[in-house]
């Protein structure tokens, strides 16, 4: 039986003898410098490699970050602070930097960006809002005891 070729854009699957592993490859277009972007994953069996290839294709089609399995929220925020705020007022840059480094990075910075869901971010942001709206009970107000007027006092 002769293996059929995959259509363009469906990735590739091949065996590398030197590493004794199956490799799945997907091309993701071109970088800004014109270099072709390629993601390559490996597996011990052909079935595992094919499943990884299908996952890569699904992620690419859904617009997920591919190849960013080690890309963390910290990496994304730091990149945004360095490159995404160009042209903004200095006060905006300072404000966003402070907010990012005091709230976002400590809470979510270690999470893998590819594994973070919108629901988790919403949960986290609502927890922060709830904490801001919760105020401690005010201290009791001291009031002097009210004494009835003295019978003999003249005002």
Work out the radius of gyration.
30 Å
Number of strands: 3
Q: How many angstroms does the end-to-end distance come to?
A: 116 Å
Strand content: 5-15%
Estimate the mean pLDDT confidence.
79
Main-sheet strand order equals: 1-2-3
Order of helices and strands: EEEHHHH
Q: Give me the secondary-structure category.
A: alpha+beta
Low-confidence stretches: none
**What is the percent of helical residues?**
40-55%
What number of domains?
2
Helical segment count: 4
The description of the largest β-sheet is: 3 strands, antiparallel
Q: How would the global form be characterised?
A: elongated
Helix and strand topology:
Elements: E1 12-16, E2 21-30, E3 36-43, H1 46-62, H2 73-84, H3 90-108, H4 118-133
Antiparallel strand pairs: 1-2, 2-3
Helix pairs in contact: 2-3
Description:
41% of the residues lie in helices and 15% in strands. By secondary structure, the protein is an alpha+beta fold. The protein folds into 2 domains: 12-62; 73-131. The protein has a 3-stranded antiparallel beta sheet, covered by helices on one side. A hairpin with a 5-residue loop joins strand 2 (21-30) and strand 3 (36-43). Helix 2 (73-84) packs antiparallel against helix 3. The termini are far apart.
Task: For this entry, give a set of tags.
elongated, alpha+beta, three-stranded antiparallel beta sheet, 2 domains, 155 residues
């Amino acid at each position: 039986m002769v293996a059929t070729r995959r259509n363009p854009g469906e990735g590739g699957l091949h065996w590398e003898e030197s590493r004794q592993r199956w490799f799945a490859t997907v091309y993701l277009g071109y970088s800004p410098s014109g270099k072709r972007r390629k993601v390559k994953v490996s597996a011990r069996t052909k079935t595992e490699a094919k499943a990884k290839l299908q996952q890569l294709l699904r992620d690419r089609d859904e617009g997920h970050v591919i190849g960013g399995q080690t890309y963390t929220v910290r990496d994304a925020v730091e990149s945004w602070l360095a490159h995404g705020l160009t042209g903004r007022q200095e006060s905006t840059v300072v404000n966003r930097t402070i907010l990012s480094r005091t709230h976002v990075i400590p809470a979510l910075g270690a999470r893998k960006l590819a594994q973070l869901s919108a629901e988790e971010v919403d949960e986290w942001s609502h927890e922060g809002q709830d904490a801001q709206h919760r105020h401690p009970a005010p201290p009791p107000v001291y009031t002097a005891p009210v004494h009835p007027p003295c019978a003999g006092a003249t005002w």
